[in-house]
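Quick bug: Oxidoreductase output formatted oddly.
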Amino acid sequence: MLKIGILGFGFMGRMHFDNYVRLAEEGADIQLVAICDLRIDELKDSKANGNMATERDVYNLDPYHLYDHVDKMLEHEELDIVDVCLPTYLHADMSCMLLERGIHVMCEKPVAGSSEEAWRMAQTAKHTGKTLMIGQCLRFWPAYEYLKECVEDGRYGSIVAGEFFRGSEPPKGWFLEGDKSGGCITDMHVHDVDMIHWLMGTPERVSTFAKTVIEGSMYDIVSTHYSYPDGKVINAHADWTLHGEHGFYMGYRVNMEQATLVFENGELKVYPEDAPSFTAELSQDSGYYRELRYFIEHVAKGKPVSVCTPESAAGSLEIIEAEIRSARANGALEMVPRKA
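Here's what came back:
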């Protein structure tokens, strides 16, 4: 049985908690035994803020061992897996320490605060032989996975053009401290950047326009064009300054050689060139659930993960860094490294 600890019990820690509980109830050979957060006494009786709903408003943590410091948790628990749901700037050091301790790590996105730190994480996983997977959950989100399948099997030909968008009202807390979160461009926009990377590979160049609206938060609005050798027209836009009760939105419109796919408001419509349009049948399970199920299955079987590898996540972060350089140069075309 795999014994699991969660490190960080904010919104994402609770989201992962919900799914580990579900997986255990479904018969997965796991046991969630410990939860660690510096503010655990406060958080266990309060609601977390996030752009999607968790299963519960207030969590009963009586069945679990609670800690306010990772050293205490590791001293008292024998864990096979630690799920790192801490602020981004803590990912690299914490993940590397856990890997060196012989523990498998599930680390939330973005992989780290810089690509240099991300590559250090990947190298640590490699030399320790422990599994490190990054929570780029869109790779497991049914509507995006469907798009990936279309690209892989060529059922509608190649991608000609695509636009990806996600937006929300402003987040709270450390997310608005740019030196900790990287701002919207690194924390939110990274989802679509990672999807573009996964679908189409590393672009040659990027051109980015971005704007800071909230003082100290880095870029809050970002729009990027991605240049590929075949000339496909790809854009991704993110904005976490939407007003009122707009709520969270994510979607895409991708035009392929023989079909157009549109994902919006939780529904994926497919418009083939020579057939009636239809709504794709998708799993109702979230990407969070599906990525954690994949992760624990691979750890249990001793199989390396091939989706959301730290190397691929580091490559996505290198694209983000190229976008930041472009934004600082008022949209100038910026080359992207090709390591991953």
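Actually, after a second look the formatting is fine. The chain has two domains: 2-136+289-308, 139-283+317-335. Closing.
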